[in-house]
Amino acid sequence: MRLSDNWFTALSENEEGDMITIYGREDLEEFIASGKFKERVEVTWKYSPDTKGLPSNADAELMESVEAVLRKAMEKDKLAILSSVYTGGGERIWVFYARTARVFGERLNEALKDFELLPLSLYVEKDPDWEEYKDMYEMKEWSAD
Predict the structure, then answer these.
(1) Which residues lie across from 88 on neighbouring strands?
(2) Which residue, among 106, 105, 98, has the nearest Cα to 36 in the 3D structure?
(3) Phi and psi at residue 120, in whole multiples of 5°?
(4) Cβ distance 11 to 22 under 8 Å?
(5) Were both Cys, which of 10, 58, 67, 104 would link to 98 (CB 3.0–4.6 Å)?
(6) How confident is the model over 104-129, as pLDDT tens digits?
(7) Are the beta carbons of 1 and 35 closer than 8 angstroms?
(8) Comparing C-alpha atoms, which of 75, 74, 56, 52 is closest to residue 64?
(9) Order of strands across the sheet with 7-13?
(10) Read out DSSP for 98-128?
(11) Residues in contact with 12: Cβ distance below 8 Å, sequence separation at least 6, in sequence order
């Protein structure tokens, strides 16, 4: 399975009406079909939003650094695949599909050990059919209109 770095951008709204930017990854069909990535891990960072619901420049830069470190740590041996990133309404959510959430958590702690304490929370759910990803991917079709 070869992991591409092809992404699309779409816009949506959360329940409060805040604009949410979605970055979704393309070309994940083989990973879905493999049946090896059964757990969805959502890493959420809550931040103080600006008037448009976005993070400050400083927060955004730190988030980009954290994302790069997490992607490298999780995807180097395909323990987990980053499938989408949601930003807006005072939070950024990275959605990974993992082989095992337990090892994901261990690796997350190791990968982020050089950062100051970050305002991250984790949510884990069994999602062997990648339902969240498929729902998110439909946003691509809407954004193309």
Answers:
(1) 91
(2) 98
(3) -105, 145
(4) yes
(5) 104
(6) 999 999 999 999 999 999 999 999 99
(7) no
(8) 56
(9) 7-13, 19-25, 80-88, 91-98, 39-46, 120-126
(10) ES-HHHHHHHHHHHTTTSPP--EEEEEEE-T
(11) 19, 20, 22, 139
